[in-house]
# Entry
Amino acid sequence: MGSSTVIANLARNLHELDQDVLVIDLKSNNLLRLHFNMDWCNPNGWALNVINDQPWFNAGFKCEFGISFMPFGRITYENKQCLFNEKIENNWLSNQLSMANFSDKKWIILNVESELNNLSIQALNYADKIIRVIEPQATCLGQFYDSIQSNYLSNNPSLHDKCLYLINKMMPLSELDHEMSLVFKSLIPNQLIPVKIHFDENIKEAFAQKTTVNIYAPNSGTAKQFRTLATWLMLHFSHKGAA
Amino acid sequence: MNYEKNDVDELYKSLGIKDYRYVEIQENEEIIQIINKWALVKEIINFCSESQSSQEVKTK
Amino acid sequence: MILTDLLQRGSKYPLHQFVYWIFLQPQVSQDWLVFKKNYFHQKPETSGMLFGFIVFVLLQLYCHDSKRLFVTKSIQKNLPHVQLAKLTFADPLRMLIQFTWLASIQSATPYKDLLANLNFFKNIFSAVSNVFFYPLKFLTELTGEVLANIEFSANSNDGDFKPHIYLIIIFLLALVCLTIPFNISSQLVFVFLMWFVAMSIRTHNGYLPKLILVILSLTLSSRYLFWRATATINTDSSVDTVTSLILFTAEFYTWLILLLGYFQIAGPLQRKTYSLPNDTNLWPTVDIFIPTYNEDIGIVKTTTIAAINIDWPKDKIKIYILDDGNRHALQDFANEIHVGYISRTNNIHAKAGNINNAMQLTEGEYLTIFDCDHIPVRSFLQTTMGWFIRDEKLALIQTPHHFYSPDPFERNLNNFKKTPNENSLFYGVVQDGNDLWNAAFFCGSCAILKRSPLTEIGGIAHETVTEDAHTALKLHRKGYTSAYINIIQAAGQATESLSAHIGQRIRWSRGMAQIFRIDNPLLGKGLKISQRLCYANAMLHFFGGIPRLIFLIAPLAFLIIHAYIIHAPTVEILLYALPAIIHSNLANSYMQGKHRYSFWSEIYEAVLAWYIAVPTTVALFKPKVGTFNVTAKGGLIKDEFFDLTVSKPYLMLISLNVIGLIFGVYRFFNGPDDELSTVIINVIWAIYNLLVLGGAISVAQETKQLRLHHRIDVKTDITLRKKSGHLLSAKMNNFSDAGLGVQLYSDEVSFDKNESIHVLISRGDREYIFPARIASVNKLYIGIILDNLTANQKQNFIKCNYSRSDAWSAWEDNFDVDKPLSSFLDIVTVGFKGYVVLTRSIPRKITKYFIKGRTFLFILKTFYPRNIHADTINL
# Structure
């Protein structure tokens, strides 16, 4: 539970601020949908449609609160190989999304796999903003400077410039977490979003309840943090992003 | 008073002072302390600042 | 259904059945039942029932079906002070008054539709006021244009236009105005012209309107004084001459203070910050001194920790606790948090000696002094120190003393954060005004001194009990400059009780008188004339005790001993004195705006008058007499009590004035006819004095204090963490150094008393966490006490509240600009309250009548119409 939880909560809060939101899950773990109360046994998703040569956008769902989302779908390992190697050509994502002709006001939030592959690279290039979810820990600091993803991003100035960083799962009681987030702040003062998402039991419980925290516990600390995050994003940018 | 905004910014805004320079001395000192406290963090930061400076030399 | 119900009920009481069937149609009786249910909220009594029935009948006859329910409900809402079910004999009158009120003055209610025709009262009122205000409005616009023109030409061609010349001409004209005697009608015209100019100009902002108001006020006051000196000194008998001269002297003193005051605050400098160099290595070294003697150690600790939090390079700042009380606990604390601890074996020269002693043991280039209860914010040095870099000659920077707890006036009059406090005038206006003339004083705390000039004058001055003002005077004599920065960068606790406040003021006035005697600012070397005047005003101000007392008993001279103190016809007195008073009020109100409301000075001065009269006089003749007394702070007044010892002089003055009043009544009925107007004036004066003294009495009524740790109100979001790992966002309503008051957003999550939790508070994007314990739970409001904080956590807690640089910056935004009339009403209320307080300490036999009178007033108050707000009517 990292980026999927963040995205689901963010989408809900943007929606509550009267924004038009579309969430697309590009992660093969297919977990995002569960935050929106989709049946666990329902295998549908855009990837499954692509494999079956059906139009991918038929896989759109709308949750009971009115957010449009598109689950990845349940596919096998062979199908996944096939999907990435054959079905998805270069510029597939941008072509498909521009064909759909969404309005400029719409927030399209892509849940991108942390592993670099054909699809995630397309998503990163397509997005207007990239939000990287980091945890305030020494491991993350290491990866921040030296990992395949970080190197890929820092070698492309255009990608590097549209990166934002969000601190997630900060343990309120951990001294080290506070210190590490201070270090991150000093390293990337302009790219770090000034809202931190804490580690909160409410988040785990909300997921277990198949919903997001602002519905499960609207007055909890993290619900408020996600609200602040959504407002912050709305103030600074007013469309599309990827995480 | 909004605790989530930077207090110094708020103070100067309320006074109508625009060009000012506030040095967050204690915070900077704290960060240096933290970096020195944890071996891994210190190593990573040192490595990066070295590689950065060597890159700068190369570009020159 | 209802019909059958009725029939059943009717069967029990045949007579009822008869009434229902014969006199009322079934439909109507059903309406009556509905009406009864809506109209009466409880079981009606006969009188109420009767009245309700009349209303019902009227509604049936004159009100359309669709409106009936609406009207029924709004009757109750519009009569909040009448119980419709239990009407008393006076209620019809109350209703009449209330409806007349609603129909005429307060017509923005749902009744607007029904009673719109009665609205002509309001129209007449506005028509009358328009007749009065239109010329004024026109004049205001006109002066606005003239002022804009003058300023425009002053800005556009600075070569040709010299406003100073014009000002000198105006001044010369004013001088002529002062001396030419007028007859009554010309004085009347003159006064009204002046008044119209002042009224039309006072709504404009800027330097020029201020100057004009000041000049008008000076003209009229000087004219008054000139007239008093030349035409009104009574030499009929020796008693008359003496009393007359005494009053004239007091008036002359007031005039002098007014003059000096205008000079002092004519152009407040309002300094901002000046940036320090980029390279922190160039920043100077600073020592922070926290002198303490016997104050509560908790307060000293908070201040010290806040001092550590100040943002300044660690190797360039050193903090010292200067403990004159030699307390081991404080020494241990200093060692624990690694700050310096300096104590000495004797206490010679009190605070001055304490600081001088520490000066010899330290070597920072600058000294910052915080009284042990003035908690600095973290930006203190960075907002101030820049000026030292800019001005080599600068030896002193003073910042305001701000109090987060109510002073005795605010607490006992219950106007904390509603009316600017006594301090506000000095730190908001006077010091800024002094700064223009390079005469900002040192006020003992929240200030930075440069070491080398201070050493040059031999350290902090210790010859007098007000070491601060004297030190500044010595620095100015040596040609050094001083600065005042009106940015609140530290806050402390105000004196707790009235007696402590008076004690502090006695010390100040004695000290100022001492300086006036041994190192008179008007004499001696090194000062500019403007500095001399500013210092002179500050010191003369403390001699105001005797003149104030004279004014408080002046009307008695005529009322009791029949001395004509002002030898002139009543009309003439009014025509000279009133304009002078009104204009000085207008000018002061314009200049002091947010910092002192009109008439409040009267109460502040009346409270102190008696107590500072003697010490200043004594100090003037024998400056060496008198000892240093520390201002006690941080105490707790456990029970409400009336400070009889302190209020003895007020009681004496009150009884004198009451006797005067009795004489006045006697003279009114038995005196010669030509004295009537004089009697009336003097009686009004005595009544005014009684009001002011009543104010002093209500200050002496010490109200109970609930907490030792004063809680500071804030509104900010924080997060609570339960033991289970659940985070909950909440609102912090207040904090103190020991805990905080929190408001929850909902009751979904409950807390138990003594439950351990963690509190997350942020400052900017930094976040701090503190272990805490629930101390009290009251629905959504919970009290939290911090639990076993480590030294580091304690420091962090102060970092995110007391040390915030904007912690006090919004404080004065609460205050409106002065409204003289409403301010006068406040004074009347406060004065009246004083007498209510007094009745409590009078024997029962006499109070009986007071209580009866009060009850009568209470009953009278029930007739008073109530304002109905639109939102309370929600059908």
